[in-house]
Amino acid sequence: MQNRTAYSGGDGSAREDLDSQLTVELASVVSAARRRATRDGDRQVDTAHLLHGLLESDPAVRAAFDGGPQVARLLGYLVQRSIGYGLRWHGTVEDSGAVPMVTEGGVPGWSPAAAAAMDGALDRAHARYALRAGCLDLLAALVDDPESRAVEVLHRASVDTAALAARLDGERPGQE
């Protein structure tokens, strides 16, 4: 089996391997999350970076929520990350507890929770015999970790994550 957790920002074959397992849309989200983490001065891509990229990039992700006002509220919280709300996260590693904290041999440039979410997205795609994971796969994987930064943002924006997870379990069309 190939190493699916090679999410580093390097130029090597590990990145190409990951990109080959993602839809074009999700690969774009991952690139945006990497850029956002770098721009914000964060050492790692975390689940909030991934959620931000999903909301900005994919209409199907936005449609999974309870309308435009909820999406606007979410984006507002995510934008505040670098100017106030998320400052307590700055310089810390996101470890939601969903997977044991990796001290050695982790995924370079990714928080443990973000790496677990990417694995979860790939698992969801493989479970439906898809060749590539899509944006809704990643959103569902993010929602599956109740202790992640992404879910913290969702809760702050009054998103019912249980209802969102149920909707996502029923929404699979249009994914490769």
Overview of this protein structure:
Keywords: Hydrolase, Protease. One of its GO terms (molecular function) is peptidase activity. This is Clp protease N-terminal domain-containing protein. The chain is an all-alpha fold. Helix content is 54%, strand content 0%. The protein is built from 9 helices and no strands. Helix 3 (47-57) packs across helix 5, helix 3 (47-57) crosses helix 8 (149-156) and helix 7 runs antiparallel to helix 9 (161-170). The model is unreliable at 1-6, 96-105 and 172-176 (pLDDT under 50).
Supply database-style keywords.
176 residues, mainly alpha, 9 helices, 54% helix, globular, Clp protease N-terminal domain-containing protein, peptidase activity, protease, hydrolase
Rough shape?
Answer: globular
Distance between the termini: 21 Å
Could you estimate the helical fraction of the residues in percent?
40-55%
Radius of gyration: 15 Å
Sheet with the most strands, sense and barrel status: none
**What is the count of helical runs?**
9
**Strand-residue fraction?**
under 5%
What layout of secondary structure does this protein have?
Layout: H1 13-19, H2 24-39, H3 47-57, H4 59-63, H5 68-80, H6 112-127, H7 135-143, H8 149-156, H9 161-170
Helix pairs in contact: 2-3, 3-5, 3-7, 3-8, 6-7, 7-9
Can I get a quick summary?
The protein is mostly helical.
